[in-house]
Design brief:
CATH architecture of the largest domain in chain A: 3-Layer(aba) Sandwich
CATH superfamily of the largest domain in chain A: P-loop containing nucleotide triphosphate hydrolases
Number of strands of chain B: 1
Largest interface: A-B, 77 and 61 residues
Largest sheet of chain A: 6 strands, mixed
Structural class of chain B: mainly alpha
Helix content of chain A: 25-40%
Helix content of chain B: 55-70%
Radius of gyration of chain B: 23 Å
Strand content of chain A: 25-35%
Number of domains of chain A: 2
Strand order of the largest sheet of chain A: 6-7-8-4-9-10
Largest sheet of chain B: none
Number of strands of chain A: 10
Shape of chain A: globular
CATH topology of the largest domain in chain A: Rossmann fold
Order of helices and strands of chain B: HEHHHHHHHHHHHHH
Oligomer: heterodimer
CATH class of the largest domain in chain A: Alpha Beta
Radius of gyration of chain A: 21 Å
Chain lengths: 264, 305
């Protein structure tokens, strides 16, 4: 773990008590878009000759002062327009980026279903890629072995596991990526745009799977453009607007308010 | 990240419902708590990095296996290429320097050159793969958290394994060509570790630079050719600038590594302990500098790419 990240052993909680799985404390994320930042030595030279090294900068707060808690076993929906910071929020929780201010406290193993098609190696077979992808998510070989059959069955790729993955269609990529994620061990599941995965039938299967995972006690964060999905699947929801929390509460209320505002 | 005690429930769950064995015992084993804040003091984070890398050793191993598998998949000769390639280069060098230019006075030239070529190939391939390891795999880094060192280091190690695969056959060939090989061979692992540290240092340093200035990889392509000719691969260190031999070893650590391999595999002698110590220290300093720079900027990789 790097920098301020520390691992602590927690005392055993009461099984009945709902512990906090995830806590965001005044989290902000600043992106500095350096439009004229020198990208090569040539540009750097030109910039230096003109007497300005850094180029013009545009500061953009993707998230501002976001605070909320998610209880263990809770399903939280995240709604908002494009560019409201939904994906950035998931990335901070997945630890692929660090917050600029504030902190995220994560109690449990996070399974990020982000960039589903990524992390595969084109030349290798489907089965090699299952193990590779799982190790990228920090899951040991022995565990994947025990789940392998379930993963392949869920992705409906029984006859393609020895085929190099470069021959897969984009739908097959996503199906495999999703299947790997939801069959491994985790406490907190991050889902970005469930509806991007496969055809209507497979999507139904994914939603069923999410429900099953939820009923088994996992904590889920679900980003979706389809507000109805959030209303039916989630307990609570957060509505992000311009990187700030616009509303946080029971999913149905938040979704209704969000739909009302986007309709007007 | 992963609690091995949880493996137990897999057997239990498999008997009941094979596809729903995710989180039954969350309450029994409290999960580790991670605090994820802004990148703080980079030096503090640098000190914790080796331990974090060790936790992800299985990923490192898998990345190395992936590199090797992907390289030889679909090739007719497969792993033989890791030896055939240097042999071809050596054959060409031998032809040039013993037949065309009869002035060459190095005894057993083929053996002499093969050692240099093998070591150089590892260095050059590791560097090329290492420089691009971060820029070409931004999708991996956007997908999940893992110590980013895994990417450049797996490039160095997979090419190191290539070198190791070629070594036994190369040693047999060397013995047949009359090289006196003895117990000094047992010191090979030391030289291997020194070269690995050296390549890792270069790879970490250059991979970081390449994220911010893509020229790095282009410049290195041409620099590597010059570097090849300035390294005593097909000539002796004292042949180029006799009075500056020491300086050459200092400026070009690859020359020191090749000199040590040659002591062990060509002259059958033990390298000067002071020389080994100095080369080792040099490699270690390079590794630390490269890693420190990498640690300083690793948090920005995903945003810059």
């Amino acid at each position: 773990m790097s920098s301020r990240a520390t691992t602590l052993a927690r005392p055993e909680p009461e099984p009945t008590e709902k512990a906090t799985a995830l806590s965001l404390e005044r989290v902000s994320k600043l992106f500095v878009l350096q439009h004229e930042r020198p990208r090569s030595f040539q540009e750097l030279w030109v910039a230096l000759m003109k007497g300005r090294g850094a180029g013009s900068r545009e500061r953009f707060w993707a998230l501002r002062d976001v605070s909320f808690d998610v209880k263990q076993g809770e399903t939280l929906g995240i709604v908002g327009r494009n560019g409201s910071g939904k994906s950035t929020l998931l990335r901070l929780i997945a630890r692929t980026m660090r917050p600029t201010e504030g902190r995220v406290v994560i109690a449990g193993r996070v399974m990020p279903l982000l960039e589903l098609g990524a992390g595969f190696h084109e030349e290798l077979s489907g089965s090699d890629n299952v193990y590779l992808n799982a190790s990228l998510l920090g899951v040991p070989h022995s565990v994947v072995e025990a789940r392998y059959r379930d993963i392949v069955e869920f992705a409906e790729l029984e006859h393609f596991m020895d085929t190099p993955i470069k021959h897969y269609s984009s739908g097959m990529y996503l199906r495999l990526g999703f299947a790997i994620g939801v069959h491994l061990d985790f406490d907190i599941l991050l889902v970005d745009e469930l509806l991007a995965v496969g055809d209507a039938e497979f999507q139904r299967k994914c939603v069923d799977r999410i429900r099953a995972v939820r009923d088994a006690g996992a904590t889920i964060l679900l980003v979706s453009h389809v507000a109805e999905q959030v209303a039916t699947l989630c307990d609570r929801a957060v509505w992000l607007d311009g990187g700030r929390v616009c509303r946080f509460g029971p999913a149905k209320e938040v979704v209704a308010a969000y739909l009302e505002s986007s309709a007007s | 990240m992963y609690d091995s005690r949880r493996h137990l429930h897999r057997f239990r769950a498999n008997q009941e419902s094979p596809s729903l064995n995710l989180v039954q015992d969350v309450h029994r084993y409290p999960p580790p708590v991670v605090v994820w804040g802004p990148s703080g003091n980079w030096f503090g984070s640098f000190l914790k990095r080796p331990a974090e890398l060790y936790r992800y050793r299985e990923l490192l191993g898998n990345q190395v296996a992936r590199d090797l598998k992907a390289r030889y998949r679909g090739t007719a000769l497969g792993f033989f290429w890791c030896l055939l390639n240097p042999l071809l280069t050596t054959a060409i060098l031998t032809l040039l320097f013993t037949v065309l230019m009869r002035g060459a006075s190095i005894p057993n030239f083929a053996a002499f050159a093969l050692i240099g070529v093998l070591a150089w190939n590892w260095h050059a391939t590791a560097l090329v793969a290492g420089i691009n390891s971060i820029t070409s795999q931004s999708n991996l880094m956007a997908k999940a958290y893992f110590p980013r060192e895994v990417l450049p280091l797996s490039a160095v190690l997979s090419n190191g394994l290539n070198f190791l695969f070629a070594l036994p056959t190369a040693i047999v060939l060397l013995v047949f060509s009359g090289v006196p090989i003895g117990w000094a061979l047992l010191l090979l692992p030391f030289v291997f570790v020194i070269q690995a540290a050296l390549s890792a240092g270069f790879a970490l340093l250059l991979a970081t630079a390449n994220v911010f200035y893509r020229d790095t990889s282009i410049i290195m392509e041409s620099l590597l050719l010059a570097w090849f000719f300035l390294t005593p691969i097909f000539y002796r260190p004292q042949d180029l600038f006799p009075q500056y031999e020491r300086l050459m070893y200092i400026l070009n650590p690859v020359a020191s590594v090749i000199a040590m391999y040659r002591d062990l595999l060509y002259s059958g002698s033990v390298p000067d302990p002071l020389f080994v110590l100095r080369s080792g220290a040099q490699a270690l300093v390079l590794l630390l500098v490269g890693w420190a720079l990498f640690a300083r900027f690793a948090d920005r990789f995903v945003e810059e790419l």
